[in-house]
Task: structure prediction
Amino acid sequence: MTETPHDEWFARLAARAQGGPSELSAVLALASAGGDLVDFSGGFPDPTLYDTQLLGETAAKAIESKPQVALQYAPNYGLASLRDVLREEIARTQGATPAEDELIVTSGGVDALTLVSKAMLDHGDAVLVEAPSYLGAFSVFRSHDGVCFSMRNDEEGLVPASIEEAHEQAAAAGHPPKVLYVIPDFQNPSGLRLSLERRREVVAIARRLGLLVLEDVAYRDLAFDGSYIDSLYALGPDVTVQVGTFSKTFTPGTRMGWACGPATVVDAMAQAKTNTDQCAGALGQTILESYIVEGHYAASLPVLRTAYSARRDGLMDALAAGLGDRASWTHPGGGFFTWLDIPGIDAKQLAGVAVEEGTAFVPGNPFFADSRATSNIRLSFSRTPVDRMAEGVARLKKAIERLDD
Ligand SMILES: Cc1ncc(COP(=O)(O)O)c(C=O)c1O
Result:
């Protein structure tokens, strides 16, 4: 869908629904455009990397061996057995163990962000966000009447001192600051990973200011060298709700995720879930549980890391060869994205011309809460075959040259 129909129903839509297609819908439309397009747009995993036979067997086993569970509604916190498995995984990989009432299973990352918003945000409450940050999260906060205030990011990610500045700005504008949203690992869109030192500062400042840290770890398992830096949750479990998703590392087709944090907030999220889907379906949860318990999840990570790092390398090489003297970009150590700066270019205008030239990406504007004009664009390398990278960058270069002329 590209246009909102303005028939007699339009005026009767809720005010929140009258904004027309969001920037997010435009991204999703591009990502499914197909054809000869060299697509650097959506942050989609590559389904050709899945072991479909193994997934099929795992799904069949889940249905055959536990039909009463797998084909039923799950409790609204999620299946107890999967919650135990996830708590153990978090203990093993992060060194902090959520108690039984401190973890809820969600339908991926966006559901987790939705439940936190429902649990925490009153009308006009401020959410402090990175600049740039994940536009899907802005959309969730805003649809729960939150107001986003930008902090500052530099070439190493979030600048901790800017938390206080954004906090003051929000308070002065009459918006009580409540939540601090951070993506510390291979951030969407910058691809950057926050240092341990900055993580410690973020937690200390949040604690002092009484902010809830909302840590989004969507790409945490995708460090190409397999390394981890302490999570904000491990550094400050008293002030952090961590939201995670298996969409990038398992399958978005099952759309599984989790949130862990202080029991009071998690309990409010479970209550909020009764107003969304009440109880998620158990099938995806059952499949994911077997996949983790049987060791397949851990075994799949090195495969994904190798494949995505080859794509990162392919894109870095293509950019260096094609745009070395015209743009600069981040060199991500994991995840799906690189963030380009093309001085003197209007990113939105470039996106339109680039599609005419046969390549797609997301312009930087919607990754800023204030939608500022920018010369930044986000390229996702997760689904683009390495042998198409040079062609994609050549098309991007042509589009830039058309605007330079
Ligand atoms: C940082 C971040 N958080 C959350 C999500 C959404 O996760 P899910 O697709 O599981 O809802 C994404 C997806 O692009 C993301 O990049």
Summary: Residues 296-323 form the longest helix (28 residues). The chain has a mean pLDDT of 94. Residues 343 and 375 are 6 Å apart (CA to CA).
